[in-house]
Write a structure and sequence with these properties.
This protein has about 190 residues and is of the alpha/beta class. The protein contains six helices and seven strands. A seven-stranded mixed β-sheet has the order 3-2-1-4-5-7-6.
Length: about 190
């Protein structure tokens, strides 16, 4: 992975130029709902929210959702689309977690869609997620797996390796997965 790909310096120019990414489809939305259930007003955090599609879906499920992203243009697009969540400019890997609206150890759900692959220090990223989750809370991750695309596909390099998948799934009380074409969804319980 290229150094610095999890930073605003990398993502802001892409969002500012109009680049958009894979939207959540009905199948993915149903999988999420099946794995995390209704929110009942509990706090949720969407890391790397982009245009806020996942955060808006969590809000519709009844979570008090905050979407964070390091790219101001992504958050501007999320705010333009509206939908109920709060939006916060934040580099999740580096900024103070104490600035989030709910304190550490109280989040029922933290989500990370198409973002985990870009984290340079995956173990440190996962530790930050664990700090936020309440006991029994869920970390929902959607990421591409290496080897799922043909070798001649220009996006072949986007998947996480088996070693990165092991890092992701180690240390949770329960790990559930579901596959969507080149993506795998992980429901990791604290």
């Amino acid at each position: 992975m290229t150094k610095g790909t999890a930073t605003a310096d990398h993502w802001e120019p892409l969002w500012a130029s109009g680049r958009r990414y894979r939207a959540i489809d009905d199948t993915e939305a149903a999988l999420l709902a099946d794995h995390v259930g209704p929110g009942h007003g509990r706090p949720a955090l969407d890391v790397g929210t982009g245009d806020g599609g996942l955060a808006r879906h969590l809000h519709r499920l009844g979570y008090r959702t905050t979407g964070v992203d390091c790219a101001p243009s992504a958050l501007a697009e999320a705010a333009r689309q509206g939908g109920g969540p709060a939006w916060r400019l934040m580099d999740f890997a580096a900024d103070d977690l104490g600035t989030l609206p709910f304190r550490a150890g109280t989040y029922a759900l933290v989500t990370c869609r198409l973002v985990y692959r870009w984290m340079e220090d995956k173990a440190a990223f996962l530790e930050r997620v664990r700090l936020l989750l309440a006991p029994g809370g869920t970390f929902w991750v959607v990421t591409e797996l290496a080897g799922r695309r043909p070798d001649d596909d220009p996006l072949h390099h986007l998947g996480i390796t088996p070693a990165e998948a092991r890092t992701l799934t180690t240390g949770w009380s329960r790990v559930r997965t579901a596959d969507l074409d080149v993506l795998r969804c992980y429901a990791l319980r604290r």
